């Protein structure tokens, strides 16, 4: 099982684990152009084997990995669900960007849709919080030139973070004991 951040989904490690049939635990990409309140990619049925994508109203289009699928404007124009699906200009249909790694993305979407999958994903939340704290402390830029010094810097920040956590827990323990 590999818990990994989305930013590393294209890594050789992910590819290797996936090829060997291991479980990858990560949130899928939301997809370019996906807007809150409109159908997301998970509302479409992606058939990786046939290379087709079916919209919530049953329109089917073929797809190529990494390409943008354009649904037929003649179907989208009068569609009863258009307002829930696209803000495309009149005369245009819904478009959906397909990932280069669409089979993996589909697995990740399926994982996210099951209760067991969501519980497994939540196991990473603690790690994400720690990373967010480190990112806050570090800021958006590397402090030094070169990997060696920056690795040292990251370890130093992690040690400070851990010491603060220990001190906080001891304080809380002390308050409870009092
Ligand atoms: S607007 Fe187009 S893509 Fe969206 S549900 Fe309707 S027919 Fe399907």
Summed up, what is this model?
It contains 7 helices and 7 strands. It has 178 residues and is mainly α. The strands form 3 sheets. A 3-stranded antiparallel beta sheet has the order 3-4-5, with no helix packed on it.
Characterization of this structure:
The chain is mainly α and 178 residues long. The protein has three domains: 1-29 and 108-123, no CATH class; 30-98, no CATH class; 125-177, no CATH class. It has seven helices and seven strands; from the N terminus they run E-H-E-E-E-E-E-H-H-E-H-H-H-H. It has helices at residues 12-19, 73-76, 82-85, 102-113, 115-122, 125-138, 147-177; strands at 2-3, 24-25, 45-47, 52-54, 60-62, 68-70, 95-97. Helix 4 crosses helix 5. The longest helix has 31 residues, at 147-177. The chain is elongated. The site of iron/sulfur cluster has 14 residues, from helix 2 and helix 3.
Write the topology of this structure.
Blueprint lengths: L1 E2 L8 H8 L4 E2 L19 E3 L4 E3 L5 E3 L5 E3 L2 H4 L5 H4 L9 E3 L4 H12 L1 H8 L2 H14 L8 H31 L1
Parallel strand pairs: 1-2
Antiparallel strand pairs: 3-4, 4-5, 6-7
Helix pairs in contact: 4-5, 6-7
The structure holds iron/sulfur cluster.
Name the descriptors.
178 residues; mainly alpha; 3-stranded antiparallel β-sheet; two-stranded parallel ribbon; 7 strands; 11% strand; binds iron/sulfur cluster
* Average pLDDT score: 89
Biggest sheet character: 3 strands, antiparallel
Which distinct ligands sit in these coordinates?
Answer: iron/sulfur cluster
Residue share in helices? 40-55%
**Could you state the order of secondary-structure elements as H and E?**
EHEEEEEHHEHHHH
**What count of structural domains?**
3
Main sheet strand line-up? 3-4-5
Count of helix runs? 7
Spans of at least 5 consecutive residues whose pLDDT stays below 50 are: none
